[in-house]
Design brief:
Chain B: DNA-dependent RNA polymerase which catalyzes the transcription of DNA into RNA using the four ribonucleoside triphosphates as substrates. The complex is a heterodimer of chains A (about 475) and B (about 180). Chain A is mainly alpha-helical and about 475 residues long. Chain A has 20 helices and 6 strands. The chains are: A mainly alpha (about 475), B mainly beta (about 180). Bound molecules: zinc ion. The site of zinc ion has 8 residues of chain A, from loops. Zinc ion binds next to loops of chain A.
């Protein structure tokens, strides 16, 4: 999508039509100082170098008074060249925009917002509407040409008729009174003479009286104007035809553009961090792509796990059903308890890990790597759950706070903390509760992401904490 | 263009219409008097759609007639310059053709008929293109643009053109 041809179109149109536009009211004295003709062209040119821009920033960049700029922009909004957007926003909201700008301009990583004031200000933004500009310019040219041609062809003019006998003049509006039933002609009301259409008279008496001369001069002038128009606007018309089949640059609405621009900026930086604070303020504006990042990752893991499940089946006959790690279980999945890993988890893991070792030696390593990864992840998830419980009991780790806002983690910690040694009688009941919580877990927006990050961080510690937990007995 | 407006009129009612049917008599007389008339200001009154209010009657000295001020809602049709209308051709002659759009008469002079249409004299005078594919004659339906109106107190007359994009014959009776 190249903007350049369209920018050229804008620049040509600006110079052709808006060169002598002054936005001052007519009542103000037109002194040399207040004459701001040409501003319109400057503003349009500046806009071709930007996408969405805050009007304050634009005014600063052009060293214009913001009132003057606003007047010019309002004019262009009426002319349908510019789209504008106004919104009341906090200082934070303004930062989203500047972050988006930063992303488009030089791809700098967006900075995290600090504390923001709750004070709201109305900010205006503007942007060229290229698709509409293309139409507006074409329409303008069409109207100009049509007006001249219509006048030249006497179109839309009321036909006049003259009585050759008494010289009385009539117009087409009198037609109803003039029509006669006897023949095909109009007749004079006073002398019943046959009326003659005036244009015919003009044609028959070329170079007649002064009235006709004036009319002919007018026609000459119109023809001249039409010709001049075609010559002088040729660059513009050429540019229009050049642009005709090109895709029009489209920036979308301010919000859509912000989201896209900042997302693109982040992608360019490889900055995939997905901190919840950012996504939550993104949600405040209704559209953000961030929650989907988490979902996609789940999908990828899931497909990997399926491949692994087959491996287990072939190599480890004793377990016909694969065990799904808790972080893979989604709402709506129809699983047995075994699959949920709620029965004999420990023993299964013990079974399968030697199998991995075994196959590692003898079979193709690709499959096993895959399998091992999945199993590792399972182990990680498992231990993470244990640690979670541990942490809650100890109330030591501060990270807990950050994580506890997701259902998934609450689920884990709730479950593990209830399963104390000697409380086995309660287990079934707990399982029921747990099921509900587990299934809901992945639904929560970016919970997956957080969860996984957490897993990686905490796995190291898993070794020491195991002994507390009664699962091994089961 | 059509408008739904409220108009007022003083109705004179003969004493023989008084009685319990006074109101109905008043309304039916109003319809007879007003529908189909034309005022330069509001255009043609197409139909009365409702009575807003009937004021107190005033007995005229000497005659016994009573005058009621009646406010009524009605649909009016008022043609405007620049408006596009569909009309039926009523008469074709060398100077152009006349057409009707409901109550409005429109004249299209021959210089506002496309240049490639020529007048053909005969039993059914008409304007026809050289290849004969398009013909304007009596009862043809045309779409035209109003380029001028003459508004008198009781009459509206229009002149139109078919010399523009998408104007001209829309239904040819001879072809059907
Ligand atoms: Zn005469």
């Amino acid at each position: 999508m190249s903007v350049e041809p369209f920018n050229r179109l804008v620049k040509l149109a600006a110079r052709a039509f808006y060169d002598d536009i002054t936005t001052k009211g007519d009542n103000q004295p037109k002194t040399g100082r207040s004459d701001n003709r040409g501003i319109a062209v400057v503003v349009l040119d500046a806009l071709t170098r930007r996408q969405w821009v805050k009007e304050e920033d634009l005014a600063k960049a052009l060293k214009l008074h913001s009132k003057q700029l606003r007047r010019t922009l309002r004019f262009f909004e009426e002319e349908k060249l510019v789209t504008r957007d106004h919104r009341r926003e906090t200082a934070k909201g303004a930062k989203i925009f500047s972050a988006a700008v930063a992303a488009t301009v030089d791809g700098q990583p967006t900075t995290k917002e600090g504390e923001e004031k709750i004070k709201l200000h109305t900010h205006s933004y503007c942007c060229l509407d290229y698709a509409q500009i293309y139409d507006v310019v074409r329409y303008r040219l069409h109207r100009m040409k049509k007006k001249l041609k219509d006048e030249l062809d006497n179109k839309n003019t009321v036909q006049e008729y003259i009585c050759p006998n008494c010289g009385k003049r009539y117009t087409a509006l009198d037609a109803l009174r003039l029509v006669s039933m006897d023949d095909e002609y109009f007749h004079c009301e006073s002398c019943n003479g046959e009326l003659v259409a005036e244009s015919d008279k003009l044609a028959s008496q070329e170079g007649g009286d002064g009235d006709d001369n004036a009319r002919r001069r007018r026609r000459e002038k119109l023809k001249d104007m039409l010709q001049k128009m075609e010559v002088q606007l040729k660059p513009l018309i050429d540019q229009l035809s050049r642009v005709k089949d090109l895709p029009v640059p489209e920036f979308g609405t301010l919000q859509a553009w912000e989201v896209r621009a900042s997302a693109a900026g982040r992608a360019a930086n490889g900055d995939s961090s997905n901190d919840p604070s950012r996504s939550s303020h993104g949600l405040g504006y209704g559209g953000t792509t961030l929650p989907f990042v988490g979902d996609t990752k789940v999908e990828v893991d899931f497909s990997g796990a399926e491949g692994k499940g087959e491996n287990i089946k072939s190599e480890n006959e004793s377990s016909s059903l694969k065990v799904l790690p808790p972080w893979m279980i989604k709402e709506g999945m129809n699983l047995t308890k075994e699959q949920r890993g709620e029965v004999k988890q420990e023993s299964r893991m013990d079974d399968s890990s030697p199998a991995v070792e075994f196959s590692d030696d003898k079979k193709s390593t690709v499959e096993n790597d895959d399998k091992k990864n999945i199993q590792d992840e399972y182990v990680k998830a498992y231990y993470a759950a244990l640690i979670k419980k541990q942490q809650e009991l100890d109330e030591a780790a501060k990270k807990q706070d950050e994580l506890s806002n997701t259902h998934a983690l609450n689920g884990i910690s709730g479950m593990t903390s209830n399963r104390q040694v000697g409380m086995k009688s309660k287990r079934d009941e707990d399982d029921g509760d747990d099921d509900v919580e587990w299934e809901e877990a992945p639904v929560a927006g970016n919970a997956n992401e957080n969860y996984k990050v957490d897993l990686n961080v905490q796995v190291d510690a898993s070794g020491e904490d195991e002994d507390d937990i009664d699962w091994e007995e089961g | 263009m059509f408008f739904h407006i409220v108009l007022e009129r003083n109705m004179q009612l003969h004493p023989r219409h008084f009685g319990r049917n006074l109101r109905e008599n008043l309304v039916s007389k109003l319809m007879k008097d007003v529908e189909g008339t034309c005022s330069g200001r509001h255009g043609f009154v197409v139909a009365i759609t409702g009575i807003e209010n009937i004021g107190k009657g005033l007995i005229r000295d000497g005659t016994g007639f009573v005058t009621f001020p009646v406010k009524y809602q009605c649909v009016v049709f008022r043609p405007f310059k620049g408006e596009i209308l569909e009309a039926v051709v009523t008469m074709v002659n060398k100077m152009g053709f006349f057409a009707e759009a409901g109550p409005v008469q429109i004249f299209v002079s021959n210089h506002l008929i496309p240049d490639d249409m020529e007048f053909q004299i005969g039993d059914m005078p008409n304007y026809t293109t050289s290849d004969g594919s398009v013909k304007i004659q009596k009862d043809s339906e045309v779409r035209l643009k109003i380029i001028g109106t003459r508004v008198d107190a009781t009459e509206i007359f229009c002149i139109g053109t078919i010399k523009d994009d998408f104007l001209g014959v829309i239904n040819d009776p001879s072809a059907g």
